[in-house]
Amino acid sequence: MKKVYKTNVPIPNQEYERILSLVEDWGIETWWEEMDQVLYSSGIRRKR
Predict the structure, then answer these.
(1) Confidence (pTM)
(2) Rounded CA gap, 45 and 37, in Å?
(3) Which of 30, 37, 43, 48 is surrounded by the most beta carbons within 10 Å?
């Protein structure tokens, strides 16, 4: 584990920009509660 962390921290600016370029905006409004529910629970979304 130490070897993995040593090679990636701190992340170079070029690598950070590459990661950010993968992000897409799908135009769907979400709330942090929904994201927590999807990521940390059974995946069942509650309706708003």
Answers:
(1) 0.38
(2) 7
(3) 37
